[in-house]
Amino acid sequence: MPRIGTSDLHVFPLALGGNVFGWTADEQTSHRVLDAYTAAGGDFVDTADVYSAWAPGNEGGESERVIGSWLRASGKRDDVVIATKVSQHPQYSGLSASNVAAAARASLERLGTDRIDLYYAHFDDQDTPLEETVRAFDQLVQEGLVRYTAISNYSRSRAEEWIRIAKENGLALPVAIQPHYNLVTREPYESEIAPLAASEGLGVVPYFALAAGFLTGKYRTKDDFAGKDREGQVSGYFSDEGLAVVDALDTIAKAHGAEMASVALAWLQAQPDVVAPIASARNTEQLPALLASADLELSAEELRSLDDASAKVPAAS
After folding, report:
1. What is the mean pLDDT of the chain?
2. CA trace torsion 298, 299, 303, 309 (10° rounding)
3. Would strands 278-279 and 203-204 be described as parallel, antiparallel, or unpaired?
4. Is 51 assigned a catalytic role?
5. Ranges assigned E (strand) in 162-277
6. pTM beyond 0.70
């Protein structure tokens, strides 16, 4: 069970993404997914207060409410690590001190819990002094509402500044960073964020670990994702070079008798400082391939094969 950075949180090496809860997975289905994930040994659930405000009829907070109802029904609050995020909820936008405090309490209410295990600044807020935000996060830790703080989608320079402010003022240091990182999106993470994570002891929890499903192999042509919920996301990964990565995954998956998703996640789990990639399942049928990554060990040759294929994917503009 890898440890999240310098914290005392030891977690399953596959985080269950909550972005689909209350969106493409209704409450009952979401509960079944959470039941199956924890029954298999999973204990790390990732969500955000904004999930899923983008869906018609939603206002944000749907995922947290679903997780909260599951926590009440299952009685498993003490068995799982809950991570959530602030800055993007329509009612709690930005990272001012007052907003961070209000958003955290709103998340706690929706989750039906007395503490958030890992609380992320979801996106940087350039309009709020960074020291104000860092102090606001520290205040939540001092009050016992948050156990550990973390950052997501921050540039290296802004992450370094956050850490400097925290160190100089004796405030809570982030223990994790959540970047966009997968086999078809390796930059800017590898050149900018990875060295910082290594030097500061940050646990890395990559999102879009399966590239919105592209790395599962189910999108081989543009017709495969036309009109789907994730069309906009998948189209950004679609290229000849990206399809070559899928082919490499297919070859390795067949050699192991495994799913391509398992191999893509295992590649991430083999990268330095990666604690647990995030992957979501909108039903229990999608879970086994995700969970299998925790036990799949790729050879040095297989890792090199994937490295070589993915290095040819053009960086996103």
Report:
1. 95
2. -100
3. unpaired
4. yes
5. 174-178, 203-204
6. yes
Q: What is the 3-state secondary structure (H, E, C) of 39-88?
A: HCCCCEEECCCCCCCCCCCCCCCHHHHHHHHHHHHHCCHHHCEEEEEEEE
Express each pLDDT in 19-47 by its tens digit: 999 999 999 999 999 999 999 999 999 99
Identify the residue whose tokens are 């790390």: 44
- Residue 43, amino acid: D
How confident is the model over 117-145, as pLDDT tens digits?
999 999 999 999 999 999 999 999 999 99
- Residue 192 DSSP one-character state: I
The DSSP symbol for 214 reads G
Of the listed 37, 51, 148, 154, which one is catalytic? 51
DSSP 174: E
Short-list 288, 260, 74, 264, CA closest to 185? 264
Residue 156 contacts residue 133 (beta carbons within 8 Å)? no
Predicted pLDDT of residue 317: 53
Q: How far is CA 165 from the centre of its chain?
A: 25
- DSSP annotation of 207 reads B
Q: Which helix (H) or strand (E) holds 157?
A: helix 156-169
Taking alpha carbons only, the member of 123, 125, 119 closest to residue 138 is 119
Quick one: pLDDT band at residue 82, thresholds 50, 70, 90? very high
| Residue that the structure tokens 């995954």 belong to | 249
Give me the pLDDT at residue 311, please: 96
Cis peptide before 52 (omega within 30 of 0): yes
Q: How far apart, in whole angstroms, are the C-alpha atoms of residue 226 and residue 211?
A: 16
CA dist 52 and 45 (Å) reads 16
d(CA 218, CA 93): 35
pLDDT in tens, 210-240: 998 899 998 777 766 777 766 667 777 888 8
